[in-house]
Predict the structure of Trichome birefringence-like N-terminal domain-containing protein.
Amino acid sequence: MSLSVKKAPAVAGGTQQWLSTIVMSVVALLLTLGPTHVQGSCDIFRGKWVPDSSGPLYTSSSCPSITRAENCQANGRPDKGYENWRWKPERCALPRFDARKFLKMMRGKTLAFAGDSIAQNQMDSLLCILSQADTPINLSDRRMSKWIFNSTSTTIIRIWSAWLLHNSKEAVGIAPEGLNKVFLDVPDKTLMEFLPSFDVLVLSSGHWFVTPSAYILNGKVVGGQGWWSLQAGKMQMNNIDAFGASTETIITAVVTNPNFKGIAILRTYSPDHYERGAWNVGGSCTGKVKPLDKAVKDGFIDAMYGKQIAAFKKVVKNYGKQGSKLKLMSITEPFALRVDGHPGPYTNLDPNKKTQRGPDGRPPSQDCLHWCMPGPIDTWNEMLFETIRR
């Protein structure tokens, strides 16, 4: 009895010392690695592009749903180097997309993309990636694009909404009929109707704020883009401010909807790379074959991105638990480097299309906004996978 009583403290003390040593070793290792190595805390949007010889997740011939305008290789683009880069975060790894794992994670769930043609571009990329594991069934109708993967009952949806807000061409005050009216305090009605059925929602907008429009707030005309009436006096809101207001409106409407139980992902502004002018005045991205080492400063893109970040932070702060439904997918800075990833002049099969500058120095008609498939936009979906998983 006396021996066992004496041995017990010795064993306990030794165990405590052993556990203490293990704990201290783990703590030291975590401190050495840095906080971003803790699962879920690494900022996957800070990093660099590195060469990758593993090749794309699909090819222009292995995806039956790839659209003509996105199929750069089939349209005659001569280089393929833009397909062979990976995004490497500073403090962790961004896993290569595993289509079977994604479908398993999304079993019985619905993922929706809402927004403009860039949202379509991302959905098209995801469909191409997932179709390498299972063939989707197209159940689209006039209200939405809809694809179902039967192996896991996973549904992928896209809802077209240029501004993510209610809009109309009817006359409002001094804004004439026929001009787009964007109601900055009214979310898109179709999106809000179907919102409760979504498990994951990806929001995409911004580029339509450069089109001629009038901005309506509280029923009054407060600003415009490419249009303004002298009768209205001083403009209260330009397109950048309107974009900020629109972002706050839509993400607030989503996270405060009591019937929406999923997560909403705000995908930040997709950078374009038109040089020497905008898309409609001879802007070009001809001949770009690799990522930039450093992004070219663009005041407009920076301002649009800043408005999204400000709105995101405000809503997360103001709505507490409801705000936790909201996630940020910050692609703007990484993809500002991917000047090589756009179709440029390679948007169609025309064998006689112009791909070089003419004698007068003017470039051919180009798309330096959307992304080639396969190409950099596939990385968006790797980032999306990781954002959902976390």
In short: The first strand starts at residue 47 and ends at 51. The CA atoms of residues 192 and 316 lie 19 Å apart. The chain has two domains: 1-33, 48-389.
